[in-house]
Amino acid sequence: MDDSWTLIKVFRTNNSGLYPVITQSFCPTSRADPSFQNIEYIEAPITGEDITQAEIIVSVGQGIGGPEYIPMIEEVAKSLGGVIACSRPVVDRNWLPKDRQVGISGKTVKPKVYIAIGISGAFQHITAMQGSETIIAINKDPRAPIFGVADYGIVDDFQNVIPILKEKAKAMK
Known about the structure:
By secondary structure, the chain is an alpha/beta fold. The chain is about 20% helix and about 25% strand. It folds into two domains: about 5-40, no CATH class; about 50-170, TPP-binding domain (Rossmann fold), CATH 3.40.50. About 30% of the residues are buried. The chain contains four helices and seven strands; from the N terminus they run E-E-E-H-E-H-E-H-E-E-H. Helix 1 runs parallel beside helix 4.
């Protein structure tokens, strides 16, 4: 029996099914499928700005209720000079692509301002954004864990807050 190990490349889709992912793994050469040997490595497409480099991030969670609110929130993010990001449940529902995900299974961010809208604050998410200089949380649940790390918190429905935030952002320009 052969004791050597072979590097193989495995093609699969990510959880959201948005783009193919190539992973590398080692397996015993005796069990390696030769067809895996010649798969080409393909970088996942970049769909927009790199959220890890943004100074202002407006991040949405499943608490916004549906993808129909994302354009309105993205408009606010852009008017503030920022980018939109999200929590894992938003990616799992295919509301935004995986490259926008903040969390242990997404990206770690440290912007100057992080605005969390409809994000409860699971530890996987908080771990990846708690290094932000200023954290503002908007959630209608006053017991949401996100308020434990927020510098400022607004307990209200985001639909009541976004128009005011939009107006203030316009006034700043």
